């Protein structure tokens, strides 16, 4: 379903070599250009203002050399993203205002009002979906799952292009401008990464360092932090959230990059607001004003814990619901077919449904439907209590808080309705194929849930719980903060939402309740469902290694030998091209193991499939075939030139027909003949038609068959030759594991080094291979089927009556015997390498 | 100087095997015990309350199985550490109160006052130093450098024992109780790790999972977070700080462990304070009350930036000063000798000096000497302005703020004196051999510096900078917060001090200034000096890999082949014991490479030195020698029993003398004879004296020589035998690199996998080895000698006229030729392994 062209990053060895080659080329190029520059300088020296020019050139050089520095890149990235974030926010605000204005202007007629209220978002969402679909379908969705996969080392093409950037930014603005329950945080991670990739490409015009792959990945990691940081003006939370969401292993030396860029970005983002006179000074985005001296009582902690646990269940439910909707639509083939035809119908229908339900004079009045997401959050984090003793209090509702008050309906009912409706609406809305995230909607729902609990507590204990002297009433806004952090933490499986919440509200007084609730929510949610991003990764079938869960001991007990594939495809050093051909036909692995010989099985390295294919095509490729045929044709010409009788068209056509029949027969017989060889027959046939037929008027089918047989013979000869690995790139140190390595360690190594596969060796002998697939299966098998294991965890111990070291020793002994028997002839022929190695 | 017994963790392969063996044993043992338990159950079944007992056993089983879960361990750890932290704080507070009480009670006589003021800390510090020295010298210092090394994979013995725990806790309490400028944060990281290690040992009585090494390291990482978390009641900052300070690569899946344990610990720590009626509810440790609506003006940012940059220089200076003091004392041999003799003199002298200078009626009155560290910090973070227009304001000084006010001296002078004096005092005090950290003193100095800048700003702009309408006066307390975070960040090279500061003060309103200052401070400090912990690591010469600095491009250009050692010690599969013997004599490496043969150099694995030694001793060890000698003796007895003449004592003694002479001569000749063999000669000689001499009265020297020659011959025979690797543990997959791997990548891999050494191979052929030493040299060489490289960065490209792939291909060709020539005999003898591998 998802357009995805994955390619795993090359293994260390190959990559290192290519990089070295590139650097070498680069240095040569540079030295050439520098030489020409010095020549220029010499010329100028004779001119008038030589010194001046030299100085200019030096300055230029210095500046260019500085451009390579990380911090310049990070500042540019931060600046760019802050601007993008601010502009997007500004446009969204204008869009939302326009909707309100239209809605407000038509208050004379409810039907017109409804039309305006509904049409506006439908148009925007449809435009967004269509625009994204046409320009870059990769821009759909949050982008965090894809970034996670990219940072894992998988190259997803088209995900980091300028087209995607434009589609994502414009699509996101329209989608959020519609007022649907969607978030901008996930897409901003993607946009920041796009920015970083594009900036990196642009900067590579100045310096060579931008072409380094590992550096680019470091920069992408920093960009993710910038994305979250400039979206919420939360530098610390942004860095932590991006680490938690995208990385498995994090290099602490990259830490400062994220902090630096995110801080700069958040700073500029807030400064823009000050310059635009929106704010007086730099403050938090959703500033709260809870009292500082007594933020909460110790006895309120159980309520916070309840919020945490409930949020955990809620978060898991949200992820489940989201997946269910996607799977339902995919499974119902009738719906799916219809929707695939009319791609824009699904977004429009969903938008219509959601906006109809939130129509303020309709059902919307019971769920504060007229508030935008931002307004709802501001009101929910309000530090006043809405209800006391169950009755709505008579304080003066400032502006938006009014929306929560309904003359007939209790504030609790409004809140419950809000939570329930927004919950499924958000889960549904995030499945729309537009650029959108789910963080902010979930955050708002969490805040509403927290507020509900807080208001209940306030109603239950009108004078607070604290008994000594002073009365400290309960602050429901604090509960809202806790709820927001807990639910968003549960959905994304992160702890750093706690930090984001502090930075968003500008108050850290509720740190302990927030931390407790977030941890509890995480504990519950992680044991029930994968995170939203992992869920999307699974739905999209992106190549990713699942995380190890919390404290599963069995990972320490499952060994690589239990999960490895023992039937490894390999090629030997002294194999012939036929073996190569067969191996390439039967397997689909991207790299093949190169062993010394089939008996010793000593692993020498790995070769990429493409390399082998090029080897084979060199041996049997068009040039060599042509050469052979030319030789044959020359010989034929010589032979036939004596009896050249220009024949009739008719005869040659009949012959052609016969030939075609025979070719078909031959290919039917030789089932092992590849498509390449089949087309080669046609090629030969064409050649014969064009070269031989003009020479010989009516080539008998037997003659043609004779030629074919000759060619086949030649081909067989070629295939029987030993492979010459001279011009072949070999990775001499593919990653190796031992058969006793535990699953836990294997997972660690795979995710650390971003491996695709690893060979399992025993004293240099290749005995198996483990790829990402096996590992994923093993982990998921042992995670999901917890009680009844798919494979017994101690399978490796069952058949090990003899200890492994003994086995090894015997193997070694055999190896050794073999060498002993061969040591005599070797001693007679001291080779060059012998001298070299000593 | 430091007692340090380092052993690198074993390589993956070896470790995996041992672990597997252990688990297997464990499961056998467990199954046996379970069988016995079921037998017990059967017996009980006949009894009365069988059901009851079965239930009990099941509950017990369930509980025990739960004990293995991580969260139980983490809760216990958090609880324990919170208690320890609280008790330590409580004791420190009592100690400090006692000093105040003594000082206050003696206010009639200044001299007595002085005596009391000075004697008290001297006694405490001397006791602390002495106690630590006697019980566990490993407890000295902060412990963070050691933890960093341990988490790197190096096992430092004696660092995680119960003795060290006791020494550290008591030593720390006494040291901090003395009122010296020392911190508890570093030691608490160590104490938490000690707790975790001891708890892990204790818990391993219940479940086997606690014996897993990688799990223990994960737990230690969590413990470090707990240490910081419960010290400052700062869970988030604690986790981040501990990650930054101790890890190079961080597994995000361990993140929750740190958060969980640190939150729980911080929670309990604060709850204890509430229960003890110190606090009304859970709040921050150093709560501030800055205004929320307008925390700072945009135009104040340059001042914050100045604080950041100045703190950067200050931090670097602090690290430099600290190292200078240590090195000065070490270099001055006279001082060093004297101090080594009287170990307690140095702490006493330093304490005397510091406490004399802070004596309140003396010089201390100009630097708020009577305030403890905590009190100073509280006053420095005060939200009122101390001075306006340069004159001390007439507000009512509550309690401690009074100390900063001096009738004659300006508040600015007091602050400057405080900063300068505390700066060198802290740098000096942290060199005292007691358990102590430097974080808190530096934090206080930073706060004072920030306060100084803030007060200056307040004096400069008495009505604030903001011009529109409302007057917002400048808050010097905010500057103090920024300064504290910046200076402590600069000294420790961390960004997370920003988070710690928010959690300590309970206010996050100054987030952007703090972040900007911290990042600037880090940028400056990191480019000037290593962090305090890295500096200590270098002083103590702990085995650690230095970090790669900020954006050094040359790391991408240096290749492994530039730094590797080409002269690798190896053993071949068909080597004889003599080679083994020679290799063991000449090298000192912990592991040796095993190659197929000297010509092919194909790497088969690595063997530990100990394994080889045991092989050699099996071949030439006492049992085999004894056996041989017994055989010889039996033969001799047979021969001599016919002519047995009991001889005189005198003759045998002369003979002994001669023998001794000859032995000496023989050993002098054979310089290559090891000590083991030399002692063996003595052994033989003793044997002859006891066995042969009683048989033969006057053994002529020539006869003895004959025996010796025979034995030597036997030995030579033994040495010429081929090594039998049957009972030898071989790591079949030691880590391999390619010669083109960049230094950057090598560093990453070494720090990721905690490697000690890696072999450099080319198509399976061993061509070099890189160990931690070479890597460290290369990194430090290219870091310190920045302009003039120790080795040219592109050395690897100079001699590469021919491309590497060509080279490889030629090598491969040779290898291939060799096999081609040997393929015939192999085909005649199809071995077992041949069948197996197909």
UniProtKB/TrEMBL annotation, chains A, B:
Keywords in alphabetical order: CBS domain, Chloride, Chloride channel, Ion channel, Ion transport, Membrane, Repeat, Transmembrane, Transmembrane helix, Transport
GO annotation, cellular component aspect: chloride channel complex; plasma membrane
Ranges where the record places region Disordered: 796-838
GO molecular function: voltage-gated chloride channel activity
Segments crossing the lipid bilayer: 71-96, 117-139, 188-207, 219-243, 255-275, 301-323, 344-363, 411-432, 439-461
Comp. bias (Basic and acidic residues): 810-838
Subcellular location field: Membrane
Ranges in coiled-coil conformation: none
UniProt cross-references to Gene3D superfamilies, sorted A to Z: CBS-domain, Clc chloride channel
Bilayer disposition of the protein: Multi-pass membrane protein
Domain of life: Eukaryota
Domain 4Fe-4S ferredoxin-type span(s) in chain numbering: 40-69
Pfam short name (any one): Voltage_CLC
PANTHER family to which the protein is assigned, alphabetical: CHLORIDE CHANNEL PROTEIN 2
Protein name in UniProt: Chloride channel 2c
Origin species: Myripristis murdjan
């Amino acid at each position: 379903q998802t357009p995805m062209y994955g390619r795993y990053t090359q293994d260390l060895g190959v990559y290192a070599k290519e990089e070295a080659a590139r650097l070498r080329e680069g240095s040569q190029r540079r030295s050439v250009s520098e030489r020409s520059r010095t020549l220029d300088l010499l010329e100028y020296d004779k001119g008038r203002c030589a010194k001046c020019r030299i100085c200019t050139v030096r300055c230029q050089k210095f500046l260019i050399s500085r451009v390579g520095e990380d911090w310049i890149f990070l500042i540019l990235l931060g600046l760019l993203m802050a601007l993008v974030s601010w502009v997007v926010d500004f446009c969204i605000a204008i869009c939302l205002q326009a909707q309100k204005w239209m809605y407000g202007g038509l208050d004379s007629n409810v039907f017109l009002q409804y039309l305006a209220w509904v049409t506006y978002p439908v148009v925007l969402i449809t435009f967004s979906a269509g625009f994204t679909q046409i320009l870059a379908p990769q821009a759909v969705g949050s982008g965090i799952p894809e970034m996670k996969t990219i940072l894992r080392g998988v190259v997803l093409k088209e995900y980091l292009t300028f087209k995607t950037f434009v589609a994502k930014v414009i699509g996101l603005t329209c989608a959020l401008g519609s007022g649907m329950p969607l978030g901008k945080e996930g897409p901003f991670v993607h946009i920041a990464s796009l920015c970083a990739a594009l900036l990196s490409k642009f900067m590579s015009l100045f310096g060579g360092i931008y072409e380094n792959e590992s550096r680019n990945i470091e920069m992408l990691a920093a960009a993710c932090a910038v994305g979250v940081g400039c979206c919420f003006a939360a530098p610390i939370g942004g860095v932590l959230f991006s680490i938690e969401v995208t990385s498995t292993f994090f290099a602490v030396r990259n830490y400062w990059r994220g902090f630096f860029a995110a801080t700069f970005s958040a700073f500029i983002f807030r400064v823009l607001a000050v310059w635009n006179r929106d704010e007086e000074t730099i403050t938090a985005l959703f500033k709260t004003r809870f009292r500082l001296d007594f933020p909460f009582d110790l006895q309120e902690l159980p309520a916070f814990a309840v919020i945490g646990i409930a949020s955990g269940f809620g978060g898991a439910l949200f992820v489940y619901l989201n997946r269910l909707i996607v799977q339902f639509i995919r499974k119902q083939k009738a719906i799916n077919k219809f929707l695939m035809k009319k791609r824009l119908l699904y977004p429009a229908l969903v938008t219509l449904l959601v906006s109809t339900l939130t129509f303020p004079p309709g059902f919307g009045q019971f769920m504060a439907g007229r508030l935008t997401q931002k307004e709802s959050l501001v009101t929910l984090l309000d530090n006043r209590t809405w209800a006391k003793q169950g009755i709505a209090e008579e304080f003066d509702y400032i502006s938006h808080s009014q929306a929560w008050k309904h003359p007939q309906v209790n504030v609790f009912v409004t809140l419950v309705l809000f939570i329930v409706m927004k919950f499924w609406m958000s889960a549904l809305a995030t499945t729309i194929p537009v650029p959108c995230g789910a963080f902010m909607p979930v955050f708002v729902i969490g805040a509403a849930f927290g507020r509900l609990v807080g208001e209940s507590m306030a109603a239950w204990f009108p004078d607070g719980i604290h008994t000594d002297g002073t009365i400290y009433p309960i602050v429901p806004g604090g509960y809202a903060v806790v709820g927001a952090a807990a639910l968003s933490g549960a959905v994304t499986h992160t702890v750093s939402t706690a930090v984001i919440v502090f930075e968003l509200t500008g108050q850290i007084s509720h740190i302990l309740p927030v931390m407790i609730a977030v941890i509890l929510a995480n504990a519950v949610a992680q044991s029930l469902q994968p995170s939203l991003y992992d869920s999307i990764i699974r739905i999209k079938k992106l190549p990713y290694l699942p995380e190890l869960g919390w404290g599963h001991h069995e990972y320490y007990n499952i060994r690589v030998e239990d999960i490895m594939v023992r039937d490894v495809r390999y090629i030997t050093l002294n194999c012939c091209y036929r073996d190569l051909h067969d191996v390439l036909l039967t397997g689909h692995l991207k790299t093949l193991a190169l062993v010394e010989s089939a008996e010793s099985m000593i692993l020498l390295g790995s070769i990429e499939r493409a390399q082998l294919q090029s080897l084979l095509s060199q041996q049997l490729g068009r040039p060599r075939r042509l050469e052979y045929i030319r030789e044959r044709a020359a010989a034929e010409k010589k032979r036939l030139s004596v009896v050249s009788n220009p024949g009739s068209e008719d005869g040659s056509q009949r012959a052609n027909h016969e030939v075609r029949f025979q070719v078909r027969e031959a290919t039917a017989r030789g089932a092992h003949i590849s498509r390449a060889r089949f087309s080669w027959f046609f090629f030969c046939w064409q050649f014969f038609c064009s070269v031989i037929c003009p020479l010989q008027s009516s080539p008998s089918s037997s003659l043609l068959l004779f030629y074919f047989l000759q060619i086949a013979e030649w081909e067989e000869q070629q295939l029987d030759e030993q492979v010459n690995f001279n011009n072949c790139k070999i990775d001499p140190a593919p990653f190796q594991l031992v058969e006793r390595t535990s699953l836990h360690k294997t997972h660690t190594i795979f995710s650390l080094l971003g491996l695709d596969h690893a060979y399992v060796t025993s004293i240099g002998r290749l005995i198996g291979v483990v790829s990402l697939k096996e590992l994923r299966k093993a982990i998921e098998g042992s995670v999901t089927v917890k009680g009844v294991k798919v494979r017994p965890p101690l399978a490796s111990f069952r058949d090990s009556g003899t200890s492994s070291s003994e086995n090894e020793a015997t193997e070694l002994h055999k190896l050794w015997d073999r060498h002993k028997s061969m040591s005599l002839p070797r001693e007679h022929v001291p080779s060059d390498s012998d001298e070299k190695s000593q």
